[in-house]
Specification:
Its main location: nucleus. One of its GO terms (cellular component) is nucleus. Residues 21-71 form the BHLH domain. There is one protein chain. Helix content is 66%, strand content 0%. It is mainly α and 74 residues long. Helix 2 packs across helix 3 (57-73).
């Protein structure tokens, strides 16, 4: 009966040390996603030419909202 395991059971088997747990892959994907978002925020802050060097994400979004509203009004 042991040979008739489902694929899901095989994925969680600890007998194969070459396999990396899914949570590690998820953590790596999340890290890449955070890094990408941080790069986009830096790019947006650069496009806005913010004077404060330590502009947080909330500041960048607030300034972006203000600029877009001004552009829509004109």
């Amino acid at each position: 009966m042991a040979a008739e395991r489902s694929p899901a059971c095989l994925q969680t088997s600890k007998k194969n040390p070459a396999k990396v747990p899914k949570r590690i892959h998820k953590a790596e994907r999340e890290k890449v996603k955070r890094e990408h978002l941080n790069e986009l925020f830096l790019e947006l802050a650069g496009a806005l030419e913010l004077t404060e060097q330590n502009s947080g994400k909330a500041s960048v979004l607030g300034e972006t909202t203000r600029v877009v509203k001004d552009m829509i009004d004109h």
